[in-house]
Amino acid sequence: MKAGTLSCAFAYLEERSPELAANRVKRIIIKTMKRRTFLQAAAAAPVAWAASLREDLPQYRIVSRYQPVPQPGMPGPYPGVVARAHAAKSIDEQSEKVNAPVVREMISRGMCALTGDSDPRDSWARFFHSADVVGIKVNCSGAPGIMSTPEVVGEIVRNLTAVGVKPDQIWIYERFQNQVASVHYERYVPAGVHIWTAEHDRGSIAGYDPNIYIDVNFFGEDDTRSNLARPVAEHFTKIINVPNMKDHGAAGVTGCLKNIAYGSFSNVARSHSGFKTNTYSFIGTLASVEPLRSRTVLAIMDGLRGVWHGGPFSPSRRFRFYPKQLMFGTDPVAMDRLLLDVIDGKRKREHTTSVWDRSMAHIKAGRDYDQNPNIDRFIREPGHIEYASTLGLGVYNIGKIQVRKVEL
Question: Are residues 192 and 266 in the same domain?
């Protein structure tokens, strides 16, 4: 390729959003350059482009009886828009007691900021009506230390019932029964609300649809399928995604994308082996499967608490912190892009390695990771968020994300 042509390709990438341009430029260059020249050029390319260059991506086969819809829930009606509500009195850092009235106000004002309505009932009515069966995808992997806060989930349920969704049409769902049992959501929601888990016993497949799955062989494992949770296809018409703000030893962070993807499919831990993880492409690919993509219409990220190391778990308070915020949106990529800055910013303030650090010098097997924030188990893949943008799941370019701030 001539130097002028290459320069034009780089300029094209920089002027357009990475999620639209990266793959196009990559295909142009790969077709016209020798491998050595291509790799030399990649070293000089913008970071967004370099992050998207993967020659070893797994081969995915998606099987589903559902077809994409013209306007899928992700990225939904508000691509690139995130409402962020912060309240200093939302949680007490010493006792971790949640201020429920403040949380109610955060959710009311946050939803109005997202939609532009003055009445929160109108905001909720944009997404849900009385005939809907609504799944609420909570995150309980760090419970009881950190989870989708019961007061937040309870307020979501209250708003659903206010627009006519009956309690027996609302399902709080997660994969593992033992994690959910420690949270006691039943104390915060009306009678009739379902609390459902895919695996009462670890490894059970009864809770998954045998006909909706992704088939991929990562490391020569025997079982190469990951199946979708049954209620997503069989019961829900809409889904609300309620992740936490956490770092993750493999994915870099765990937010909207990972919660809805790894939390709705079976057999996903097989994506890690040794120091390598396939979260870079697996998370977004799972999230793109129908009908999960089309039915996930709203995300409310629970950042009252956060975890800056050791996620997705939180066995002690040492690595917990308190952003005291909730984020609202329909675009999981945009929300997770903001989450990256929250988690990596906290890690920098704690003088620990960045989630973007790919040095093998920090990789160490064993339990030292739980106590040392400068040790990693895997080469982290925070690039999974930008990769998801190339699948059409949202806006990654920080310059094109509109943040609507609410301060209480």
Answer: yes
